Amino acid sequence: MDRHMKAPLTDEEAKSLKAGDYVYITGTIYTARDAAHLRMCETLDRQEALPIEMAHNIIYYMGPSPAREGRPIGSAGPTTASRMDKYAPRLLDLGLKGMIGKGKRSDAVKEAIVRNGAVYFAAVGGAGALLSKSITTSKIVAYDDLGTEAIRELEVENFPVIVVIDAEGNNLYETAAAQYRQE
Q1: What is d(CA 86, CA 77) in angstroms, rounded to the nearest whole number?
Q2: Which pTM value belongs to this model?
Q3: Measured between alpha carbons, how far is 64 from 129 in angstroms, rounded to an integer?
Q4: Is 9 exposed, middle or buried (CB count within 10 Å of its CB: 0-12, 13-18, 19+)?
């Protein structure tokens, strides 16, 4: 099913999504990769405030290439999500509603998605130039010293993703493989 959603996501919106849904996101999302996730968890360990609000937000696991003249961002393809698996449950427990990446997630992440009524989306790997066309603005909001791994705030319009793991724990990678084997 094709769905058009505004970001940040409400609890109800996140829970309404089903594995396999095609979703076009419009609104504000954030980027963060390994180094930013580590730094956020170190910040939490010190009992300090995070540089961005987790509640209802979506984090896109992406480190962009430099922007061409006249564009807000360069190629913006997804990073392998499993690299953030050791950090994701903690951020989901703080209210993070969505994550965008590519590839499989750990059981701990899947359990945290279900526990928090969140969702894991996949963006198409290798399509970074195409995905960047849905990004209308990009600005660094934290950890500028991390370069491409800095946290960015992105405004997106009809950013295309697919629901891989929904709030009930249904996993498209597993169900699609099982269906393929039956055919």
Answers
A1: 21
A2: 0.94
A3: 10
A4: buried
Active-site residue (options: 9, 19, 37, 64): 37
Two tokens at 100? 């965008």
108-118 pLDDT, tens digit each: 999 999 999 99
Q: Residue 50, SS3?
A: coil
Residue 180 scores a pLDDT above 60: no
Question: By three-state DSSP, how is residue 70 classified?
Answer: coil
Q: How many residues in the chain?
A: 183
Q: Which of 6-20, 41-55, 166-180 has the lowest mean pLDDT?
A: 166-180
Buried-state track 100-125, b at ≥16 Cβ within 10 A, e below 16: bbbebbeeebbebbbebbbbbbbbee
Burial tier of 46 (Cβ tally within 10 Å: 0-12, 13-18, 19+):
exposed
Annotation marks residue 4 as catalytic: no
**Which whole number is the average pLDDT over 13-23?**
97
**Contact of 68 with 90, CB cutoff 8 Å:** no
